[in-house]
Predict the 3D structure of the following.
Amino acid sequence: MSIKTAIHNGVATIEIARPEKKNALTREMYQTMADALVAANSAKSVRAVLIQGQPEIFTSGNDIEDFMSSPPRDEDAPVFQFMRALVGCEKPVVAAVTGAAIGIGTTLLFHCDFVFVSDESRLAMPFVGLGLVPEFASSLVVPRLMGHVKAAEKLLLGDPFTGAEAAECGIANRVLPAAEVQAHARRVAERFNALAPSAVRESKRLMRRHSAEEVMETIKVEAEIFGARLRSPEAMEAFQAFFQKRQPDFSQFE
Ligand code: COA
């Protein structure tokens, strides 16, 4: 199983476990994560959700082979079900990031409530480098978090950044030694066992209320452009370059 799910002591854990492909996310994996989030949201025994990867990699983002062979076709595609399930999760979601978090590995963090990163984590949103555009409302959230010029470094140039920088700009709560990240994140998730569950849910809803509509609308607008770009010659060149382990050559494009 590339996604492992478990419920223990009030915490529903979603673990990305496909280390041989650097935890790249396939359609099936998005579907499993979407289903797990929906189930956690309605399960009485669950007070919080924990999303984690492997010690050496959180996720390398969308599986690039899937981008080529089975791109998302409509709003019901597993990736969009996952996005809606995460944005719509009424319970606190905690992310434990060890290793690299690339593409949606970074953008999913904007929709979690607590994010803990390791001192060796590297985050990146290399959409443009793949001939694509930002997704999961990152075109809205990133400029708001850090201002346009810093956002341009991350979203136009696709520059990677450290866990420490993620904490400085408000993407992450705390930077911890890699070996401590998952245990710390779990302890925070378990704190919700002692809190009034409906007060937590209502408070999360109030905190997200102002941006909820904008986020959903941005996801939709981005998805339309992203979907078209997946079929573009620029993206094809980038995907082929990735598998041929070379730099893409965009010199012939206008
Ligand atoms: N989709 C599909 N396969 C992926 C992948 C992805 N997103 N990321 C890694 N893999 C595969 C590689 O093709 C390779 O497969 P192989 O062993 O069959 O050749 C395997 O996972 C190991 O990856 P590799 O690149 O050799 O590992 P690395 O340690 O040198 O680099 C990363 C790790 C994460 C930095 C690098 O794999 C990477 O940049 N991945 C793509 C990130 C990306 O652009 N994601 C999409 C964002 S929208």
